[in-house]
Amino acid sequence: MSRAQFGFAAHPDAIADLRQLPAPIRDQALLNLQQLVHGERVASRLGERLEGCHKIVLGTGDDRATHRLVVQFRDAPPASKHSREVYLVAAGPRFEYEVYRSAQNRLGRTGLNTPPPGSDPALEARVRAAQDARVEAAHSRSARTVPTRSQSGVAYSTASPGFAPTATARKAR
Fold first, then answer.
1. Triad 130, 14, 5: Cα angle to 5°
2. What is the pTM of this model?
3. Which residues contact 53 (CB under 8 A, 6 or more apart)?
4. Which of 46, 49, 89, 118 is an S-S bond match for 70, by CB 3.0 to 4.6 Å?
5. Is the dihedral of CA 94, 22, 10, 32 positive or negative?
6. Measured CA angle at 55 (ends 49, 60), to 5 deg
């Protein structure tokens, strides 16, 4: 195995998460974390409230893709011999997005982080404006229509080349 390219740190509750995983999933999680630290594995980016985080899909046998690890790549503390570190935010089942909700809560990205009423009117106004902007952006994205033909008569599509729609949709991971 190669030399570690990143440091490692974990949220205290994420360590408890690892302990609660079923043994085969826990072994797989630890192996994946080791591979991340050594730079031998790539994690998939997450978006929305978990922007800046990455996921690793876990599962064994017939139960593939049942669990997730949520990690961040961030600057290491000054005392570390590494410049960057892998920070484990959460580990757990994907069922009903449980692991993602845990990660959001631990990072303070629930969307419910509003100041108490009457504390600071300027801060309340900024938070309200940011929330309204997110809602407006979501509405504008969902109301989008894609033209089927351009003026030159060429049809454009958002599908990948060679894509043929099927009757059954692919299950999201």
1. 95
2. 0.62
3. 45, 46, 70, 71, 72, 89, 103, 107
4. 89
5. negative
6. 140
